[in-house]
Amino acid sequence: AQKITQTQPGMFVQEKEAVTLDCTYDTSDPSYGLFWYKQPSSGEMIFLIYQGSYDQQNATEGRYSLNFQKARKSANLVISASQLGDSAMYFCAMDHTGGFKTIFGAGTRLFVKA
Amino acid sequence: SQTIHQWPATLVQPVGSPLSLECTVEGTSNPNLYWYRQAAGRGLQLLFYSVGIGQISSEVPQNLSASRPQDRQFILSSKKLLLSDSGFYLCAWREEGTYEQYFGPGTRLTVT
Predict the structure, then answer these.
(1) Who's near A89: CB < 8 A, 6+ residues apart?
(2) Hey, which bits of chain B come out as E strands?
(3) A37, A47, A100 ranked by CB distance to B32: nearest
(4) Which string of DSSP letters, residue by residue, matches A29-97?
(5) Which of A42, A70, B74, B107 could disulfide-link B33, Cβ–Cβ 3.0 to 4.6 Å?
(6) Confidence check: pLDDT of A97 > 80
(7) Contact call for B46 and A101, based on CB within 8 A
(8) What is the C-alpha to C-alpha distance for residues A26 and B43, in angstroms, rounded to an integer?
């Protein structure tokens, strides 16, 4: 069965420091995609970063990078130089090639302290 | 560029009343469309998805229904709302063959 697990319900980080949000997944399909979304208090879901299962290098988008460890089935999000505006819920998600459905984790709430 | 609209932004409805939430996408053709519900402080629950006009797949049996009368229009309905229908409803679209979904601004529904 396909599953996404985010074990950190809440995380605190000091402004300007880096933080890692954990995500593990389970699938038997060799072809899949992993993503992270940010949801600020306004409720909108903002796409952050994507990693394909066959990608050799870890994905990066500005201050966001995805630490992809295929053998461990983990896809952790690393946010460098945290900013106050990074305070939000973060969701890890997975989809499969040719599939129609995306599975979301339960989310991690990040608090950035000044 | 593509945009996605949802309305209304907020809605307060009494138990037993009907519901109609609308979602439209601009700037793309034949998108995959999705309805999700998010309970307070929780993750996203997929309710319905559609890969084409008139085609609807339901993920969770409940008193909600969805319709896709036009290529870029997706409607979520209920004949009689329950208290448990309260939540944040998000519409999303995805271009066929890609992974990323793009979400609308959401509708916050409170059933009283």
Answers:
(1) A38, A39, A40, A107, A108, A109, A110
(2) 3-7, 10-13, 19-26, 32-38, 44-52, 55-58, 64-70, 73-78, 87-94, 102-103, 107-111
(3) A100
(4) -S-EEEEEEEE-TT---EEEEEEETT-SS--EETTEEEEEETTTTEEEEEE-S--GGG-EEEEEEEEET
(5) B74
(6) no
(7) yes
(8) 17
- The model's pLDDT over B30-54, given as tens digits with 9 standing for 90+, comes to 999 999 999 877 788 889 999 999 9
Nearest residue, CB atoms, A33 vs list B49, B99, B102: B99
Query: What would the two tokens of residue A42 be?
Result: 């306004």
How many C-beta atoms lie closer than 10 Å to residue B42's C-beta? 14
B48, closest residue in chain A (CA to CA): A101
Structure tokens at B2: 């593509």
- The nearest CA of chain A is from the CA of B16 a distance in Å of 26
| Ranges of H-type helices in B29-106 | none
Please indicate whether, in this complex, the C-beta atoms of A100 and B51 are within 8 angstroms of each other: yes
Residues of A in contact with B100 (CB under 8 A): 35, 47, 50
Residue A60 has, within 13 A of its CA and on its CB side, a CA count of 6
Q: Does the beta-carbon distance from A43 to B100 stay under 8 Å?
A: no
